[in-house]
Amino acid sequence: MRVLEQTAPLAYQESYDNAGLQCGDPQMEVRGVLIALDCTPAVVDEALRRGCNVVVAHHPLIFKPLKRLTGANEVEQTLLKAIRHDVALYAAHTNLDSVLHGVNRKLGEKLGLQNLRILDPKPGLLGKLITYVPSTHTQAVLQALYAAGAGQIGQYAECSFRSEGTFTFTPGPETNPFSGQPGQPHTGPEDRVEVLLPLHLQAAALRALRQAHPYEEVAYELIKLENLHQEVGSGMVGELPEPLTPAEFRQRLRTALGVPVVKHTEFGEPIRTVALCGGAGSFLIGKARAAGAQAYVTGDLKYHEYFLPEGGLMLCDVGHFESEQFTGEIFRDLLMGNFGSTFALFIAETLTNPVRYDF
């Protein structure tokens, strides 16, 4: 869980979502992990056949609140089977959709897009932490903050700003000051240190600050920023290596995604810039146009939503499952990269896509 949430923090899931551990003991020993897009009774059966006691899925099994657990529907049946056989269920959903190296980047890579970036970055996820440190301890405090996740800006690590100043304080009679004497006014040099901080790491950063700081009373300021977080948000946009005609681009979709059908709108210009969103992405059509995309790839578009581009780009509906089918590779690479052969790891062979096509 810790490894998965370092890449896709639960704080980045949408308010309506229910990502995280859905059932199971977080302290139990992992014997094997089965990775799936959806969790169904057949997926739990496959986990049991393979000797796995953890299922990691993209879509949460428990999405709406359960009022009872009687096996009256497939969700309850799946949950009961998992509980009876001590199989833990974990989901990383919109939190994995929202990060730079998540679902949408994987889809963009499969399509051969370059210069991939977040289509609709989120504001309000960052803060600035400011503190005041004697210069002899500035580096130690900064290293503690970096280790807690502060000071990262895109691909640049250990970012900070410092300026020199002068402190003034009078320690109380029962204090044990780092410098100066109780009851005596004291003045000296001090560094003002500033770092950028993801707000969901606030508690860890403040804990690290207090542990590394030499003062009894640590002065700090935490300011919420409205800056866009360039590595967290909805959708993705990138460029094809070479422009393609609309027909050539749709053929690329069919080949790369293995889809038999692409529902699309008419468009007569070459395709170079492509926006995309795995799953249901109609809410980003306007953002795709604003980004200068000639094509927008997503799933689950409704009839009237096909009118929204007004000829400004080509909408391509490849299907919900089809647009997220490679998500298992993200889970696999994360877990293999961190645990290697510690436990068995499989991508499910059970097909959970409920949609079928007749020709």
Kindly, what is the distance between the CA atoms of the first and last residues, rounded to a whole number of angstroms? 43 Å
Average pLDDT reading: 97
DSSP, total strands: 15
User: Which strand order do you get reading across the main beta sheet?
Assistant: 5-10-12-13-14-11
Report the sheet-strand fraction: 25-35%
* Helix percentage: 25-40%
Q: In sequence order, what are the helices and strands, one letter per element?
A: HEEHEHEHHEEHEEHEEHEEHEEHHE
Structural class designation = alpha/beta
Q: If you consult CATH, what is the topology of the largest domain?
A: Udp-n-acetylmuramoylalanyl-d-glutamate--2,6- Diaminopimelate Ligase, Chain: A, domain 1
Mind describing the biggest β-sheet? 6 strands, mixed
> Could you state the CATH homologous superfamily of the largest domain?
NIF3 (NGG1p interacting factor 3)-like
Radius of gyration: 25 Å
Low-confidence stretches: none
How does CATH name the architecture of the largest domain?
3-Layer(aba) Sandwich
Give the overall shape, derived from the CA principal axes: globular
CATH class of the largest domain reads Alpha Beta
Number of H- or I-type helical stretches: 11
